[in-house]
Amino acid sequence: MIEIINAAGVSEKYDVLANFPFSSDTKRMGIVLRHQATDRIIFYLKGADVIMKHKVAPSQRATVDESCENLALEGLRALVISQKLLTPEFFD
Fold first, then answer.
1. Residue 28, C-beta contacts closer than 8 angstroms, at least 6 positions apart
2. 14 pLDDT band (50/70/90 cuts)?
3. What pTM did the predictor assign?
4. I want to staple 30 with a disulfide (CB 3.0 to 4.6 A). Which of 45, 52, 78, 82 is the partner?
5. 47 contacts 79 by C-beta, under 8 angstroms
6. For residues 58 and 8, what is the distance between their CA atoms, to the nearest angstrom?
7. Residue 77 pLDDT grade (very low, low, confident, very high; cuts 50, 70, 90)
8. Do 31 and 19 contact (CB within 8 A), yes or no?
């Protein structure tokens, strides 16, 4: 179980259902959580922009590219984070 304080200052509790550690081969990592209050199952994935831009919706790829390019111009490295709600049937 993990507990976070969300942006509104409210405590939220999650059960960790699966953890996918960082791999230098895939350049990404992920975690599957169940929100205790709502039973929603959420998959979070984060990784290098060159890998993750292929994991976001095609309509959002230009935004990801532009944002990461702007950060790179400032000498910053970007990580892209995505989330997807999973059905219990899909997860099981």
1. 22, 45, 46, 47, 48, 51, 52, 55
2. very high
3. 0.82
4. 45
5. yes
6. 31
7. confident
8. yes
